[in-house]
Amino acid sequence: CHTSRMATPKGKELAQNLPREELTHLILRLLQAWNEPLSHFNQHMEHHQELSDDSLSKAKQISNMVHELKTGVEKSMGIISNSLNGMASSEAAGLSISNEANLMSDSDFIHCFRRDSNKVQSYLRILKCRIMPENSC
Fold this sequence. Notes:
Layout: H1 12-17, H2 20-46, H3 53-76, H4 82-85, H5 89-93, H6 97-102, H7 106-131
Helix pairs in contact: 2-3, 2-7
């Protein structure tokens, strides 16, 4: 996975110990790291003649959801990170993703995306529990 070199907490307990701002920046970096690969994946999918319009539509929906989630996290957390917004996705993640992400097979790509999506979901749950502890987290 192109994000495997990105430093992320190993386990829920370590993620819970991260300060709120650091966890938020980690979420933003993960989301930013997927902007370019998802764009390339969508272009790749458009060239597959055997794919249905529904499959193409779902691939575009995923890209849009990642972008909206990134924007939502920035707004809801009150953090507009100029250092992340002003960089290309590979720079923001501290990775060279242009070749690595593009050379993955479709199944590897989906596996990596699912892995990172699960991380983002877990980190968002932790933040939600910190912000609204009444949700019995």
